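HUMAN: Would you supply a protein with fold tokens?

ASSISTANT:
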Amino acid sequence: MSHVTLVRHGQANTTARDEISYDRLSDLGRQQARWLGEHMRGTGERFARAYSGTLTRHRETAEEMALGLEVLADARLNELEYFTMAQLCAAQHGVAVPESREAFILHLPRLFTIWREGGLEGAPESFESFETRVGEALHEIAGGEGRAVVVTSGGLIGMAMRVTMGLGMGALAHACLAIENSSVHRFQPLATGLALTQFNAVPHLEAPGRAYARTHL
């Protein structure tokens, strides 16, 4: 098995309330990705393979990082459709779509629980399907030759942690809520499987004057 580095995309359209509107990087998101790429090159970080989801924000992040590799797009690496499911949850269970980060923190674990229990009629995919595709993609990439970098989304990174570490629903929601834009997460192969060895690292944003660029949404 090979090391796998997961990168969350840069900041997207924070004013969006639907999947299509959200799916593009902000100017700050592009800058975050450029800084990350510069940091990796500056520290000698090298990858043999590169992957991303098929969403616009994934492709734009990979482009701004300038990885110097052909990036293989794989729909299994796409984010869960949060906005779609939040609207279904509001219509079917009266759970209001959050309008602030504080409300989002309370909303996400409740949404995840309802989704996992099959309580969202018409959901784009089941919780089990999401979990399965993430696990399959992660282990397939880990089975390839050489170190791999994957540009994806926070929900998928959280699910990768659940798949490899057995996180419960509360821990899964907390992990997803903590993940910053353009953050780096690394999985190391062991004889017993993949182990998380780095979580939510943003070394490219720790330089003086870049504190403003640390974002979650």
User: Anything to note?
Assistant: Residues 50 and 71 are 5 Å apart (CA to CA). The longest strand covers residues 193-201.
